[in-house]
Write a structure and sequence with these properties.
Blueprint: H1 2-19, H2 21-24, E1 35-39, H3 46-62, E2 66-70, H4 77-84, E3 92-97, H5 98-102, H6 104-107, H7 115-118, E4 119-129, E5 131-135, H8 143-153, E6 158-161, H9 167-179, E7 184-187, H10 191-200, E8 205-208, H11 210-218, E9 222-227, E10 254-262, H12 267-281, H13 284-291, E11 296-297, H14 302-323
Parallel strand pairs: 1-2, 1-3, 6-7, 6-8
Antiparallel strand pairs: 3-10, 4-10, 4-11, 5-8, 5-9
Helix pairs in contact: 3-12, 9-14
Length: about 325
């Protein structure tokens, strides 16, 4: 009987040991092997370059390989569907922009695909504003001129973007809604084709990020009427905001790029990734490299990121429904 009590006591002690914080701490710390950063963007694009900078620095910090896997195409569905099937353990992360997260559910309503029901937000990466670009030969000098032309020419003024449902397309719909005008959207297959078309006068104007438009701008064939943001950009201090140039002050066209993970990521892993990504994005050398693309690194807490994306979703929903834009 005494022997049985001794064995029982030993078993209970072992059970307590296994359940103790010390025992749980023996599990491998994250990350213990290769982390893959998937992206919906193509090789060489701005978001891809940022992700590769991030992978290099995280690899040094984590002392584990961090690799980038490009899965472009299909409006982001190729990358999303591939990553959604993977374990929610932090070893597969996905880079998307705010349009994938906030506009896609309204553009593909019959698919009933809501990214934030399939993925957890992990960390914001960067923000990029959009410029209103016209040909250097355009007679318009400010937003007042563009809006007046839209009212005068009614349904014949054109603006371009890189695809239906892009920030450039929805931004144009937003401008038209705010000014009571109607403009014709002209989608292009490639960004380079779009801004060449603007420079040549084949399309009247277009929204564009600074890195996307800069090659044509630097050639002297493109001009910025305004930046669709609340404040001027430090790289272009002479370019006014839309409001300063005579346009609607509410117009704020931008894109937010973030990291996500398959739904169910453990909070402690999510918090570590968020903290380490923020640490990397705060490094002076990293900020300097992102500045060459006019990208603003973001270190927002996740509730603020979610709030921004939800606000965008509401804006996009109303614009998409009003213009009856459908991609399914």
């Amino acid at each position: 009987m005494k022997r049985r009590r001794q064995l029982l006591s030993a078993a209970l002690a072992a059970g307590c040991l296994l359940a103790s914080p010390w025992a749980r701490a023996q599990a491998p710390a994250y990350p213990s092997h290769t982390v893959t950063l998937y992206t919906a963007f193509s090789v060489g694009s701005g978001p891809d370059v940022v992700l590769r900078i991030l992978s290099q620095e995280l690899g040094k910090l984590w002392k584990q390989p961090v690799v980038v896997e490009n899965r472009p195409g299909g409006g982001g569905f190729i990358a999303m569907e591939a990553v959604a099937k993977l374990p929610a353990d932090g070893y597969a992360l996905l880079q998307l922009d705010s349009e994938h997260v906030s506009a896609l559910p309204h553009l593909y309503k019959t698919r009933n695909y809501v990214p934030l029901q399939k993925f957890d937000l992990v960390a914001p990466l960067f923000y990029t504003p959009f410029m209103v670009s016209v040909s250097q030969k355009s007679p318009w000098k400010n937003m007042s001129d563009l809006i007046e032309a839209a009212k005068t020419r009614k349904d014949s003024l054109t603006y371009g973007s890189w695809f239906v449902g892009s920030p450039g397309h929805l931004g144009g719909e937003w401008l038209a809604s705010l000014t009571g005008t109607k403009m014709i959207h002209v989608p292009y297959k490639e960004v380079s084709q779009l801004y060449t078309a603007v420079a040549n006068g084949d399309v009247d104007w277009a929204f564009g990020t600074i890195p996307s438009t800069r090659p044509v701008y630097d050639s002297g064939k493109l001009r910025y009427l305004a930046i669709a943001a609340p404040k001027r950009h430090p790289q272009f201090p002479d370019v006014p905001t839309v409001a300063e140039a005579g346009g609607p002050p509410q117009l704020d066209v931008n894109s937010i790029v973030s990291l996500l993970a398959p739904k169910g990521l453990p909070p402690e892993v999510r918090d570590k990734i968020h903290a380490d990504v923020s640490r990397v994005l705060s490094m002076p050398e990293v900020r300097k490299r992102l500045d060459t693309f006019a990208f603003e690194p973001l270190t927002w807490p996740l509730p603020e990121l979610r709030q921004r994306l939800d606000q965008k979703s509401q804006t996009y929903k109303s614009l998409i429904e009003a213009a009856n834009i459908r991609l399914d």
